[in-house]
């Protein structure tokens, strides 16, 4: 016979009747009730001993590390800890938000080096790592694949412009180089964004990056209007699952179709 832990009312009809009662008036079941039968106890130790001795401990080994919720499997428990508590059980570490823990779980720490550069075979933790490696000209076997060349490959496989922009009359990336005239009396200042640098070399590194180039890509996610100057940037956006367009695992699976010549892209 199940009993309400708040008012003590007993329910001969069983568990569901008690649940309906608690839900309707805001009462709670007994705090230390067995997960299988209607027995309840003064503390968690007695409950655990009862469940272990009678084989009622269906969920006892899958208890959340943060709260007292229990689940049928370790996978469900881990998902709850990540989504509700932003907690990594393996590292015993809590993160500020969902995006931070997702990045942590998708990092080299947990995934190793599963992604391989199709040109030099160097391994990386994510598709973003491989794309950044190629796009910035760091691949020794693909020195000729620049940001613009990679865009042309992607565009040829995405003729309808689902995520690559149709740049009619586009001339490619523009080169910028600052001189000593960029000194404003305190630092070397970027003419475009007014960011300041201690050294001229630092400012020119900034100008040589993609930050002030034309946007080449746009996210096709529903309700997402973000645009990106580099392929690595939009792939990183997808991997973060910020807009929900594609799951991290799906990005890794489709990566080979995106960066190498071949058939049209399909997501």
Automatic annotation (TrEMBL):
GO MF terms, alphabetically ordered: DNA-binding transcription factor activity, RNA polymerase II-specific; RNA polymerase II transcription regulatory region sequence-specific DNA binding; zinc ion binding
UniProt cross-references to SUPFAM superfamilies, sorted A to Z: beta-beta-alpha zinc fingers
Membrane listed as a keyword: no
Listed Pfam families: zf-C2H2_jaz
GO CC annotation, single: nucleus
Domain C2H2-type positions: 86-115, 188-215
Xref: SMART domains: ZnF_C2H2
UniProt keywords, alphabetically: Metal-binding, Repeat, Zinc, Zinc-finger
Annotated protein name in UniProt: C2H2-type domain-containing protein
Organism: Coniochaeta ligniaria NRRL 30616
């Amino acid at each position: 016979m199940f009993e309400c832990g708040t008012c003590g009312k007993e329910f001969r009809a069983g568990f569901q009747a008690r649940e309906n009662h608690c839900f309707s008036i805001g009462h709670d079941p007994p705090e230390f009730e067995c997960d299988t039968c209607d027995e309840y106890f003064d503390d968690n130790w007695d409950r655990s001993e009862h469940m272990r001795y009678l084989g009622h401990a269906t969920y006892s080994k899958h208890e959340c590390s943060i709260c007292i919720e229990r689940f049928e499997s370790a996978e469900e428990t881990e998902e709850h800890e990540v989504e509700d508590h932003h907690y990594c059980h393996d590292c015993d570490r809590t993160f500020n938000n969902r995006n931070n823990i997702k990045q942590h779980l998708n990092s080299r720490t947990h995934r190793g080096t599963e992604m391989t550069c199709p040109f030099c075979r160097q391994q990386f933790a994510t598709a973003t790592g491989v794309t950044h490696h190629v796009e910035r000209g760091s691949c020794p076997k693909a020195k000729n694949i620049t940001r613009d060349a990679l865009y042309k490959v992607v565009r040829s496989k995405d003729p309808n412009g689902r995520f690559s922009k149709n740049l009619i009359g586009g001339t490619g990336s523009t080169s910028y180089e600052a001189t000593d005239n960029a000194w404003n009396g305190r630092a070397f200042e970027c003419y475009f964004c007014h960011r300041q640098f201690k050294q001229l070399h630092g400012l020119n590194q900034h100008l040589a990056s993609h930050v002030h180039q034309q946007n080449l890509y746009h996210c096709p996610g529903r309700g997402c209007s973000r645009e990106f100057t580099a392929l690595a940037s939009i792939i990183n956006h997808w991997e973060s699952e910020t807009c929900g367009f594609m799951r991290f695992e799906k990005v890794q699976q489709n990566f080979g179709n995106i960066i190498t010549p071949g058939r049209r892209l399909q997501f």
